[in-house]
Amino acid sequence: MPELPEVETIKRELKPNIINKKILACIPLRSDVIAYPKPKTFCRAIIDERVTNVTRKAKYLFLELTNEKKIVFHFRLSGTISLRKLHVKPERFTRVIIKINGYQLFFNEPRVLGRIYLLKGKKRLPFLKGLYNLGLEPIADAFDLPYFRNKIKGRKAKIKALLLDQSICAGVGNIYSDEALFHAGIRPLRRAKRITIRETAKLVRTLKHVIQKGIDNYGTSVSDYHRTDGKDGNFQKFLYVYGKEDEPCKVCGTKIVLTKLGNRSTRYCPKCQK
Question: What gap in Å lies between CA 139 and CA 205, rounded to an integer?
Fold first, then answer.
């Protein structure tokens, strides 16, 4: 968290409010959250620049600025952004404040794992390898059966692990992988090489569907994620397995199982998912 639908929601809500606005100030309340360059250098570099665009790639959010500068937000497990009027006080877990004409952008991060970077021009940062090695997003037209089948065919890895691999399924995390696998009827612990072409095609469809539905419903608020105005997303109302451990399956009534895949919690229905 947040995953592709949550970051897309943040992008859509920020863009109309801050586009063409000048950055007035930058206040690091927790300096280590600004990963590059050093906080003082970062703040000096963005003040007086204007926001020319707000974009997203997988789970990364970008504020594109004048003079070929770009602020990169990597939310990791619990980062979010709040957009508030200038008189509003910082929130409990606000780590960095960026003041823009008429607004304050609060980067909130309870676990202090999220990071902010500044890029200039086409320079690549060695510690942002994850950004440069992203695969296709499931909502892309090119993410189709041949693409996904080629990525998983013959693999011994468990299918959920491959869904979480950002070099294959950019933007997918725990929530939407669990939900897509449920709707595809595939148990997350199955080896990818044992999944049939028909099952793969269904998984591609369900992955696209749950992510688009997540976007349409402003993301999933089950933990730290909130929209930029503080409201919750709505997709948690449509969850079938994520966070439903020990509850009866909505389809068959069997108790939803919680297990571990690596260090990730994973939920599934032992009857609906073979």
Answer: 10
In the chain, how many domains are there? 2
- Does the pTM surpass 0.85? The reply is yes
Q: Which of 43, 78, 46 is nearest to 59 (CA)?
A: 78
Q: Which of 255, 173, 120, 228 is nearest to 5 (CA)?
A: 173
Residue range(s) defining the domain that contains residue 13: 4-130
Mean of the per-residue pLDDT values for the chain? 96
**The domain that contains 153 carries what CATH number?**
1.10.8.50
Handedness of CA 28, 31, 34, 40 (dihedral sign): positive
For 148, the token pair is 């996904």
**Which residues are tagged catalytic?**
2-3, 59, 264
Assigned domain for 136 exists: no
**Does an H or E element contain 129, and which?**
helix 129-132
Q: What does the pLDDT look like over 10-31, one tens digit per residue? A: 999 999 999 999 999 999 999 9
Identify the three-state secondary structure at position 78: coil
Write the CA distances from 136 to 125, 156, 224, integer angstroms.
Answer: 21, 21, 26
- pLDDT (tens digit per residue) in 238-254: 999 999 999 999 999 99
| Residues 157, 155: Cα–Cα separation, whole Å | 5
Helices 145-152, 197-216: crossing angle, 10 deg rounding: 120
Q: What are phi and psi of 104, to 5 degrees?
A: -120, 135
CA distances from 45 to 86, 117, 126, 255, 261 (A): 21, 11, 20, 54, 42
Neighbours of 91 (CB within 10 A): 15
In this structure, which amino acid lies at residue 58? A
Amino acid identity at 169: C
